[in-house]
Prior knowledge:
This protein is an alpha/beta fold. It has helices at residues 27-30, 35-38, 44-47, 50-62, 83-86, 140-146, 159-172, 189-204, 212-220, and strands at residues 2-4, 11-13, 18-23, 66-72, 98-99, 102-103, 125-129, 151-157, 176-185, 208-210. The strands form three sheets. It has a six-stranded parallel beta sheet, sandwiched between helices.
Amino acid sequence: MVSITAQPAPIDLDLDHTALVIIDMQRDFLLPGGFGETLGNDVGQLQKVVPPLMELLAAARAAGMVIVHTREGHLPDLSDCPPAKLHRGAPSKRIGDPGAFGRILIRGEYGHDIIDELAPMEGEYVVDKPGKGAFYATDFGKILSDNGITQLLVTGVTTEVCVHTTTREANDRGYECVVVADCVGSYFPEFQRVGLDMIAAQGGIFGWTAASADIIAALTGSERPGIVAAS
């Protein structure tokens, strides 16, 4: 058990029952020319997350933590993409359209996959999700249950959409969530600030927020047997 400096108050983490969750760090969202940029977004805002998240991921791997990566995307025939999602708004390109990195947000395409810097290693879980939250229509909940996970370190993009949705879903299921403030990102700085404030508001209504440096210090100072994840 380690104590982490966090908002709204310190939290004790049982590292044997904590998983690092890395949400949707995909090329379509982060790379110049990808889907995110075609919508008029500044992908540089998301790229700020990469260096601290690389350090946190390395520390989590060294500590033998359970690590779960998620990817938002759909089947090639779009049968798992509801019309309300597919046709919303008037973007320059839509899910399934040809993009700079293959068909946009289609499983198996280059753009759908995770950026090279954070590529999953053997033994780490990869959850493909058709929605914003990691629990909907996936085996994410089973992975956590099978590994005895009760606490989550939540990272990834975007703060106000997939990170928030997953954190709220996890909170409703009884998980304690620590959103790592410098390891989540939004295209919109104001959404980033407000999104983090909302997590810890009212005494931690959805969980805690903490800096990666404090978590890394706890991980690197701990001595514990490694967890072997299923392939």
